[in-house]
Amino acid sequence: MDRRKLLIAGIAEGLGTEIAATFSRAGYDVIGLARTNRALEPVRTLVEQGGGNYIHLVCDLARPEEVSAALRTHEVSIDALIHNAQLLMIKPFSEISAEDFEQVWRACCLGAMISAQSVIPHMAARKTGSVIFTGAARRSQFLGVCFGQIRASWSGTGAGP
Predict the structure, then answer these.
(1) How far is residue 161 from each of residues 86, 93, 149, measured CA to CA in Å?
(2) What is the domain range of residue 14?
(3) pLDDT tens across 51-86, in order?
(4) Which of 19, 65, 145, 150 has the greatest number of C-beta atoms within 10 Å?
(5) How many domains are there within the chain?
(6) Segment among 26-35, 130-139, 147-156 with least mean pLDDT
């Protein structure tokens, strides 16, 4: 039996690893995109324990040419995309520069668009597929007072407290 293919854009420890393990037990092989190889072995182990195969690809999700090159031989067979890239920046609000803001936005938002654009045309051609966007990076502490200073936690994804 052919297993379905899940692409996790932004796989690392935590939520990405748990998503990979859960989907492998549900009959999916997993392809993970990440900036580094840091999560390669723990994810591979969990996916294989769930009966799946794991392919780990290194690229910067905010660079279309890197995502395209990484997915070139895989994009036509992806059944589901979960965009899970997070970049959390915690510093005093007055110290967050436009460059800091853009760095978080590029990882969380622009990367989501680029990943989706890579696979949605192939899903549409097959008339099947799913795209899910996660947001788990400390969104409950967006703005608060900490030790008398106003601090901001900025993550480009998520909703609600």
Answers:
(1) 17, 19, 21
(2) 4-88+101-137
(3) 999 999 999 999 999 999 999 999 999 999 999 998
(4) 19
(5) 1
(6) 147-156
Strands 54-58 and 28-34 turn out to be parallel
CB 48 within 8 A of CB 60: no
Classify residue 23 by its DSSP letter.
H
DSSP symbols for 89-128: EEEEGGG--HHHHHHHHIIIIIHHHHHHHHHHHHHHHHT-
* Domain contains 79: yes
Token couple for 66: 């890197």
* Residue 82 identity (one-letter amino acid): I
Q: Note whether residue 154 is domain-resident.
A: no
What CATH number is associated with residue 78?
Answer: 3.40.50.720
Cα angle for residues 92, 98, 104 (degrees, 5° grid): 80
Determine, yes or no, domain membership for 106.
Answer: yes
Q: Please, are residues 13 and 35 in contact by the beta-carbon 8 Å criterion?
A: no
Residue owning tokens 């045309």: 121
3-state secondary structure 73-85: CCHHHCCEEEECC
Residue type, 155: S
Put residue 129 in one of left, alpha, beta given phi > 0 → left and psi -120 to 50 → alpha.
Answer: left
pTM equals 0.82
